[in-house]
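Reviewer comment 2.1 asked that we show a complete input and output for one of the modelled complexes. We chose the calcium ion case, as it is the one discussed in the main text.
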Amino acid sequence: MRQVRSGAPEVATPLMTARILAVFYAFGGSAGLLALLGASPHSDRSWVAAGIGTSALIGAVVLALWGPRWPRAVFHVPVGASTLLLGSAVALVPDPLSAVAVASIVSFVAVDAFFFFRPGPAVAHLGAALVGVSTVLVLRGYVPVPTALSLVAVVLGLGVVTRDLAWRATSASRDPLTGLANRRGFDDALQELLAAADRRREPLSAALLDLDHFKQINDTDGHEAGDRVLVRAAESWGARLPTGAVLARHGGDEFALLVPGLTGDAALALVERLTGPDLGTGVSCGVAQHVPGETGAQLMRRADAALYTAKAAGRGRSALDGDRDSRLATELAAAIATGELTVAFQPVMALGAADQVIGVEALARWQHPERGAVPPDEFIALAEQRGLITALGEQVLRTALTQLTALRATTGRQLRLGVNVSVHELADPGYVPRVAALFAEFGWPADHVIIEVTETQLECDVAVVRQNLEALTALGPIVAADDFGTGYSSLSRIDVLPVQHLKLDTSFTASITTSPRREQLLASIVALADNLDLGLVAEGVETVEQDALLRRLGCRFAQGWLYGRPMPVAELALWLDARSADGAFSTVR
Ligand code: C2E
Ligand code: CA
Ligand code: CA
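Response of the prediction step:
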């Protein structure tokens, strides 16, 4: 028979514990009531015994309903209580035969104690139950001592075999050296805890702990010394974990830890406490907090990335995933998936005797639950780096179309819609069919769409981007070179850029009234755009001086705070109303 180490961990998870206990309470209660039914003569005391059987049945319901939420330590109460109930029931039963039948229910304690608890507490529970029940049997004069001992022997044998079978049955999920869960056991626990965390909306954190210079210990002091360090780590950490935490040996000298209920910061503090200097060797840790919707593999990959960061920073350290950026990226992915991103619309004006609103530019907005509004420049760049920009762009376009078609339905205004598109989106051959499908879905005329691509990104000469831009133009939208005037080479290549509009950058507009040379440059750009038949939109118009100069030089379109800030669609509706009411602007319909 396999030696069971005294530090061996519990076999059953709290969920299993609650379920098995509920089953035992239900069967124990029923068995007791049946034994009573066969007993004679019935007296007042048998009614009390029947009450105990009924309480056991109620206990089964309580365990089934609420037990799965209890920390492991709480289960000592129902196991201990079962001994008390049983002892009392045996004392109350009227005849010896039924008393022995009821006493035999003690075998349940043998099975559950070894299944739920470490060997020490399990022996204590079983010992208390056997001593209690056999003492009552003997003192009440139901059976002689040897008979009581025979019951004890049977139940003891059952307990020992249960522990061994349970141990063997779970050995595929356990690391034989440390007795901890192995990778397989860990993966099972991870799935269970992830589901629970998502269901209860509670935090869950994972950590990877790696012994520093373990190979050196193995090489210089031998494998047994290495094994001793691993066992010591498992015991010292295992003893100080909060309830519900799962520690596993992930392989080699790497341990993995799951802590339900703790945020990443709290889990980081925990592993820093655990991995104090007492182990004799340094430990590097990577910690990650589960983000709702993420898979177990993704969570562990982030913990691994954090571990890598910790090691790179010089070992013996702990790091929380990630760097701020990777956390933000994970949250951004969730925000895109849940439709948490919103869209603000900024009016674009046609400058003339009576100014007209010709359209709006859709600008993505992200209100982060803790950080507040994240600047678009920041999260757009992040989305581009982390491969989220296609999903983001599609989400923004869909939201813009949803809101503007609703606005069109109530006001009858068919605005032009400007959307910002990253070159990463245009590098996807499926881009044009996708947006074409969206325009069709909303009944939005494709020739009322302006695709804005920053000038510097247009410079990249990728075949598929060029083909997409041509296909877009054929479909209907106008392509605009955004942030025009901030790049360097465009002026010389302006004739070959696949665009029909130029959007003069905010920084350029800001300088036109402060520098005569800039004013000259603007005049040249206006002339150039006219000659090449390109539309020109000045962005970032903030002052009446800028507005006057743009009109004087013949720039036909403008956008900026002077006319209207980016705003949610409801505000845009009011803004449009106010403009048409006071007659300052009229709208192209
Ligand atoms: P952009 O395309 O150049 O957008 C114009 C930016 O100028 C917007 O900044 C707008 O709020 C700001 N702006 C408008 N009028 C004025 C003004 O009078 N003065 C000043 N100082 N600024 C003004 P925002 O909203 O912060 O967006 C920043 C950039 O993020 C955008 O620059 C665009 O490149 C990018 N972006 C925004 N939404 C999206 C999107 O859905 N997809 C992609 N790919 N990029 C987006
Ligand atoms: Ca733009
Ligand atoms: Ca711009």
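The pocket of calcium ion (ligand 2) is lined by residues 361, 420, 452, 482 (CB under 6 Å). We note this here for comparison with the apo prediction described in Section 3.2.
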